[in-house]
Write a structure and sequence with these properties.
It is a single chain. The protein has two domains: 87 residues, no CATH class; 68 residues. With 178 residues, it is an alpha+beta fold. Strand 3 and strand 4 form a beta hairpin. The longest helix is centred in the C-terminal third of the chain and has 17 residues. The protein contains six helices and five strands.
Length: 178
Amino acid sequence: MDEFAWGLPSSLPEKRQLRSIAVVAARFTGRGTQMALVAGEYEFTCSECDGDGSLQVIGTEGELVWDKCDECRGEGTVSYDELEAAEAIEVGRTPLRTPPTSDLHSSPLKDELDQWFGFLSDRQAESTPPANIMIGYAYGYAEAMLLADREEPAREKLDFMIRAAEEFKDHPGFPGPR
């Protein structure tokens, strides 16, 4: 069981708290599995009382917002079973309490986004950080934008993914023109 301190001192400015939480989340999502942070609500278990709580991923840039434990309303440590979390939040799937984004948004842009993300995910072992980490971020951001019916920012992240895939253009299965 890995533990991550999500509750940060309230003396930190709000923007810095959000950035610090985002860094911790990005590190967690990049450990051993591919998980994209997408808009929705992630469940956790509070270390103070073993109660249920949630972590919100909201906003146009996928900001993370700490939500207190539903039971004790405390700001304890979020405890995750890494394998259980990896199974629950798989590549291209939204967090635990929201339906799959394919049920919420279906379009040619979403299909194209999924196609490029799948191709790049298959090449992850051939990529080096931070590029392979940024792909998950770009996908999560684009998916959140599609959920918010904002296609222009989603298209920008898709273009980023296409540029990242250029180094693999000679690879069989390359989704675009060679």
